[in-house]
Write a structure and sequence with these properties.
alpha+beta, Ubiquitin-like (UB roll), DNA polymerase, domain 1, five-stranded mixed beta sheet, 7 helices, 5 strands, extended
């Protein structure tokens, strides 16, 4: 029985069935570059990593509060208090919270919806009313601050039988389109005429130390500049205020 013999040195150097090298001109061989990951696979991996990182945060947000966490206290409403308001010649006694604005008190508690809520920030003038003859933005003041004062809204400009001169002029000059800003425009124009009659100067007055001599268009535009008209009826509004100041003969 023949025993196993170790490989010879020749067999270690060359495999038994290895092909002989060819004498023809061999082309240089290049090692193929590793395949780059496709764009879709990269985006899928990135999305999976982002979802995995966000899941603990979402779980923490959606987790129900534990019994050890104290519950947030419920806000306690301010107690209502009585307020006496004289609106358009009538006495009103309201029981409202101190933080209710005069605009909300007029609309929601008294039911006078002629005064409009536009921007609710004192920038458009749609909520203009008269308080003791002085025009203010009712959205920027609290109702409790005007206890006992005389308030005039657009509903109180006309008498029982006729419109006021400024209301008539607005109709004749077609000084409104959608009509939303008209109540504030009418109240502001009423105060504008009263202020000029009292000799109050404006930024358009040439010499503020003297009484303005004439209510020019520039004076009207300056005195009405706090009331915005989104329809752009400014030309007719100026004409209406001018007619109400100097009615035609």
């Amino acid at each position: 029985m023949q025993g196993w013999s170790p490989p010879t040195a020749m067999s270690e150097q060359r495999p038994r069935h290895s092909p002989r090298p060819s004498h023809d001109a061999a082309q240089p061989t290049t090692t193929p570059a590793p395949a780059e990951p496709s764009r879709r696979r990269f985006l899928q991996s990135a999305a999976a990593a982002a979802a995995l990182g966000a899941s603990p945060h979402l779980h923490a947000q959606n987790a129900p509060p534990t019994s050890a966490e104290p519950a947030a206290p419920m806000p306690v409403p301010a107690p209502a208090q009585p307020v006496q308001l004289q609106i358009n010649g009538h006495e009103y006694t309201l029981h409202i919270e101190p933080r209710v604005t005069l605009l909300d008190a007029l609309r929601e508690y008294v039911g006078l919806t002629g005064t409009k809520k536009g921007c609710d920030r004192g920038q458009c003038g749609a909520c203009t009313v008269l308080v003791d003859g002085r025009r203010i933005n009712s959205c920027l003041t609290l109702a409790v601050m005007h206890d006992g004062e005389r308030i005039t809204t657009v509903e109180g400009l006309a008498s029982a039988t006729s419109l006021s001169p400024i209301q008539t002029a607005f109709i004749e000059r077609d000084a409104f389109q959608c009509g939303y800003c008209t109540p504030g425009q009418l109240c502001s124009a009423t105060a504008c005429l009263s202020e000029f009659a009292a000799g109050d100067a404006s930024a358009a007055t040439t010499d503020v130390r003297t009484r303005p001599m004439q209510l020019t268009d520039a004076e009207i535009r300056e005195r009405m500049s706090g009331n915005l008209c989104r329809c752009g009826a400014y030309v007719n509004i100026v004409a209406a205020v001018r007619d109400a100041h100097a009615p035609k003969a």
